[in-house]
Amino acid sequence: MNTSSLPRIAVIATGGTIAGQASDASKTAGYKAGVVGVDKLLDAVPALASVAEIHAEQIASIDSKDMSLALWSTLAARINPLLKQDDIDGVVVTHGTDTLEETAFLLHLTVKSAKPVVLTAAMRPSTALFADGLLNLLNAVTVAASQDSINKGVLVAFSNRIHSARDVTKTSTYAVDAFQSLEIGVLGFVQDGRVEFQRNVTRPHTTSSEFSIPDAWPMVEIVASYAGVSCVAVDALVQAGVKGIVVAGTGNGSMHSGITQALADAVKQGVAVVRSSRVGSGHVMRNGAASDDALGTISAGGLNPYKARVLLLLALAAKTAQNLQHVFDTY
């Protein structure tokens, strides 16, 4: 049991730009991600000592563009036992920005604790002028240490804002405030030690989620609809044994005629097909008899293609294929 007056927060490092290093402090591109170890990152933020006691672990040192299903399994397998410990009050994960929203949503659905789990990252390497990672790390620990963060699901603390893992997405290749919750808005903010939530998370997550990390991951891929698209990619995926396909459709998840029949044929062969949108904001309505009922496809609702893939991976692994529309309507 933690006998200190301060919360005890586990900081789990996976690499990313927040741990990046460049030879020239004026450069914010062309650096090497995941170079700086978690202990060095923490030493660079002495203010953490007044916020929480820190337990630090380095489980990976990667550029998050290379995030894998195996590392997702490893990450969840470490976080869940940590959160069961009486002397751990919350977890912070340092991560790269490229796939942060996918990892956050995966954990949002598979962490089995009401204790706070907060992801953070950086757009500039630690060696850059005006690097943003250290303040993001301080803010993430502050959010994880707050009693108000309990039972909010997995959170993302970035650029003084607090996002729900379900809603957040990366919206810029270079801006320091690269993460937004476009359709619904942020959950709250963190600044100078103050944490304030302005709304609640309403959909099931963490302890109310039916999902857990599977022993084996099904093959689920993403295809895009665009002018002149052919059925080559869909046919190849079906031949390769794919179990699910998420379509990054145009507009309201619409699919080009060049792939529609191939996707309908895939459904007949037992492949789950989910329609999402490449637009970046809004939601995909279920089209009923006009499309989904006739083709056997599923609407992703408000999930972008990458988060729709996360949910489809978990649903297929849990063998809920017969109730997929209910799954997407629920989560």
UniProtKB/TrEMBL annotation:
InterPro entries: AsnASE_II, Asp/glu_Ase-like_sf, Asparaginase/glutaminase-like, Asparaginase/glutaminase_AS1, Asparaginase/glutaminase_AS2, Asparaginase_C, L-asparaginase_C, L-asparaginase_N. The keyword Hydrolase applies. Coiled coil: none annotated. It is an enzyme of class 3 (hydrolase). SMART domains: Asparaginase (SM00870). Pfam families: Asparaginase (PF00710), Asparaginase_C (PF17763). Its EC number is 3.5.1.1. The active site is at T17, T97. GO terms for molecular function: asparaginase activity. Residues 8-201 form the L-asparaginase N-terminal domain. Residues 220-323 form the Asparaginase/glutaminase C-terminal domain. SUPFAM superfamilies: Glutaminase/Asparaginase. Keywords: Hydrolase. The keyword Hydrolase applies. NCBIfam families: asnASE_II. Belongs to the asparaginase 1 family. This is L-asparaginase. It comes from Candidatus Burkholderia pumila.
